[in-house]
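Field reference: sequence -> structure
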Amino acid sequence: MRATILNCTLKPSPEPSNTDALAEVVAAGLRELGTDVRSIRLVDHDIKPGVSSDMGDGDEWPRIREEILRSEILIMASPTWVGHPSSLAQRAIERMDAMLSETGEDGTPVAYNRVAGVVVTGNEDGAHHVISEINGALGDIGFTIPGQAWVYWNMGPGPGPSYSDTDHGHQYVHQVAGLMAKNLYAVAVALRERPIPAEISRGED
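Structure field:
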């Protein structure tokens, strides 16, 4: 089993990322279940704007897309900015829009039979909105969203410390992160054993 985490932080490497820290808790849970996990920090790559899988010279999205399609599990991890996903999360979703019309050799849409979840951090409120936006988009693209396949941390309304600056709420959040990992893995295994048939994905009788 393989999982890819798209870390949509705005902080380039090697700057510490709160989003990466919480996503790593989910990754650890997946590794305990035998999953190979790779995390990609999108800000470190030249991802051209657009809605095609390859935007030409210098575009690094095709290699990232290849990692997504090599995985049964996709996790999008985003900070909260002004109550919304980061601009990099939005760009990744826009680039994955091309998957709506892309199919495998049997005609099944390429995002089908893959599961997805969301990790959100921020020292402001708005996490549920971010989760809804990202999960809604991934569902439209064709990913399967298991129940409780998300985790978030924030300090609530007003300014405050970031995830890595405090232990506030960590015990509960880590429990949720563990449940998220188990749910993603369980549904990924189920889809691997009984995938959505190509004729159903194409809407055939």
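Note: The chain has a mean pLDDT of 94.
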